[in-house]
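Structure ticket #2291
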Amino acid sequence: MHSYSFVAFYIITRMRRISVLSVVLLLGLAFTLVSREPAPNPRLKKGGRLPERSGWIQVHLEGTPGDIGFQHGYLLAAEIRDNFKAISTEMTHEEKKGWEFFRKTAREVFWPHVEPEYRDEITGIVDGLAARGVKLDVWDMVAMNAWLELPYYDKWLSKGIPTATGAPESGKGPGDHCSAFAATGSYTKDGRVVIGHNNWTSYSSGERWNVMFDIAPAKGSRILMDGAAGLIHSGDDFGVNAAGIIITETTISGFSGFDPNGIPEFVRARKAMQYATSIDDFAQIMKVGNNGGYANNWLVADRKTNEVASLELGLKNVTLQRTMDGFFVGSNFPADPKLIKEETEFDPNDKSKSENARHARWLTLMEQNKGKIDVVAGQKFLSDHFDSYSGKVEPSERTLCGHIEVSPRGMGTWQAPYAPAGAVQNKVTDAAGAEKMSLTAALGHACGIGFKGQEHLAKHPEFAWMKDILRDMPARGWARFAAR
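Resolution: structure written out below.
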């Protein structure tokens, strides 16, 4: 019984001389007050927000694409509004364009190639936001979801290729993100797959990459993945699905190339997470309609077969390698010489570069730990501070646990010294964990070093433009998450 009904009941039962008419009036008032409260939206019935754990926001989304989207928008309305502010601030500053440019690109370049299922989900997010009073529309949400590939389009525009969005404008191009590994067979402790990844980005957006999504779609496989509020894909692309596929990636450094007639990367990445039941399925979904946006070296594991694979997905050059006894590593290091020559500006011979130094460190760690790699070892790898170029243990942009804010040089678009960027969160799982739809994750630097936003801005006023979006980023430690 509602509290208003309790009030009426109390009055009725305690006042002995009350008239029948008064009783009727009181009951009428109680029921009127109850009826004025909005009924729960039926689209929320299967979704829910769980208590936060170690800084991670946990949400369960279930049902049709529209229902999943509505639950997402409604349950994470405040976080989506906050994430939109951070992303739009970063994008407009880094690409030197107003937000309307990205909205127009979302509408004219990306939306025509978004499949109906994911159109419905994005529209559902907008509906959920509206129900909570947040005024963001479909084009805002598409631009947010395409956030990581928009710089690729912008860089493509700068080469003078005419498009539907108007005259070419200069673009800086994409930054580089992440360190990752996938191992199996004689390299792992139990002979089964182990896979891990840390996400590198700006600390302002990285501190908001803190949602653990448990998604049970009406079609396809259930998904457990990390992500950011408002995105239908993981973004840094770490997740497990109920079909036994575990996925992650690192970007291809210095990549150039974009096809405006292709399917957005964020659509293909989400579709692969949801529908891939094998490594072949995954590769096929990612290759069909490839637009070159957010070009990655994808690491994939199949817990059913204990096979791991690397899909280096350029726009012109695509290479799939796989093994049941070995490993693949990622550090934004392009491997295929033809891809390097034709589609990147990367110098594989400069050992001082972050990508090359981290690649060398991965190779050493894999061999040193052959036969011993498990989840605990993976967590330790992602906290590693050994600089293979200098031969010293010192956190920097050359270490697997990246600290660009302490480095005298930046990465990708973050060219200014001491950019507040680097590793922002970490995930590791294995075959046994994937069988239970679970993974381990840690926000902040896996090494345990925290970051103080305002202290950094006081020392480096060139980043004052971030003052309204840069937050502290404490290291919160590892926790296990599972689909429920």
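Closing remark: The chain has a mean pLDDT of 89.
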